[in-house]
Design goal:
mainly alpha, single chain
Length: about 100
Amino acid sequence: MVEMIPLFGPIPGGMEMMVILLIAVLLFGANKIPKLARSTGEAMGEFKKGRQEIEEELQEAQSEVNPTSGTDGVADPKEVRETDTVSETDTDASEA
């Protein structure tokens, strides 16, 4: 069985959350907390939207490199070797 280790230590319980909320109210004021939460939510939404656009661009780029026909835009090594060999024999024959 694998033991899960939390990244930031134990998750605060009810009393700890109340203390954190009280400190937040004292620091920011009761009027600013909803605005802060709203702007944080909007920022998270923009981040998710940007991440999704980047993922779509990467998928499009990958599909352009790897089309459904099975070729990935890279020449087959066998074909490269055959053409190299043919070109070497052609130059030898033309020199003689």
